[in-house]
Amino acid sequence: MILDQVSAIITGANQGLGLEIARHFVREGASVAICARDELKLVAAAVELRELATGTQKIVARRCNVSDEADVNAFVAHAIGSLTSVQVLVNNAGIYGPKGGTETVDLAEWRRAIDINLFGTLLPSRAIIPHLKAQKRGKIINLSGGGATSPLPFISAYAASKAAVVRLTETLAEELREERIDVNAMAPGALNTRLLDEILDAGPGTVGRAFYEKALKQKQTGGAALERGAALCVWLASAASDGITGRLLSAQWDPWEDLARHRDDLAKTDIYTLRRIVPEDRGLRW
């Protein structure tokens, strides 16, 4: 088990991808502290995870709003106290936010998406960084997605927040490099979760016909496997990925299982990062 003796915090882990990540971590030997806003689902998730745990593994669950600083600080302190120490943080909690033309959507809902997706990544990271620094090691894994790498018309809050998460990831990676704390982002692929159902419920008139039809096809064909994204999180949490930091990796498309062999190339290049494209990059001379 590659996460034996590892303890991790996983946010938004009462359903969907977050719960699948927690399952994978427990199966690989980790103790986990999970949080979410829906307490009933959180309790059920904790029961399931405890049934998977063996030996000295611990499962901790506590309700938490990741956009609330006091709530986050209390949860992280509780997790550290209950697990003795924590080596890994997975910032999974996120929402799509309002759907529709940017000039028409509710501004309060737009801000709420930023609070949950961006501040919900920043606040747990701020809370755990001093603890990781004291250990001189650690892993922070941030959930990103397609909104970070291409425009998402009619879902602007999600797109903007996820692009910001990637730049925050790259920035924290540089700040924490000397502390041996790796910080990476992960794009899980097009998943058939509650977020997909939100798109279908909104309809083509709200999210655009092209995006709606893409989502409908995804629903019919099954979408990307949750297991693939969870497996990438396990790899990023393990010693196998040590020294790989500041990257946005696709669970579905990138050869991440073999990336350790390319550690030196990654360190010398901007592969798997967000960068500005200039004319010369496309063979043009303006």
What's the alpha carbon Rg, rounded to whole Å?
A: 19 Å
Number of domains: 1
Described by strand count, sense and barrel closure, the largest sheet is: 7 strands, parallel
Q: Regarding CATH, which class?
A: Alpha Beta
Keywords:
286 residues; alpha/beta; Rossmann fold; 7-stranded parallel beta sheet; 7 strands
Q: Could you walk me through the main structural features you see in this protein, from its secondary elements to its overall organization?
A:
With 286 residues, the chain is of the alpha/beta class. It has one domain: NAD(P)-binding Rossmann-like Domain (Rossmann fold). The chain has 10 helices and 7 strands. The chain has a 7-stranded parallel sheet with strand order 3-2-1-4-5-6-7, sandwiched between helices. Helix 1 links the parallel strand 1 and strand 2. Helix 3 runs parallel beside helix 4 and helix 4 runs parallel beside helix 5.
Summarize the structure.
The protein is an alpha/beta fold.
Indicate the topology.
Elements: E1 7-11, H1 16-27, E2 31-36, H2 39-52, E3 59-63, H3 69-83, E4 88-91, H4 107-135, E5 138-143, H5 156-176, E6 181-187, H6 194-202, H7 204-207, H8 209-221, H9 226-237, E7 248-250, H10 263-268
Parallel strand pairs: 1-2, 1-4, 2-3, 4-5, 5-6, 6-7
Helix pairs in contact: 1-9, 3-4, 4-5
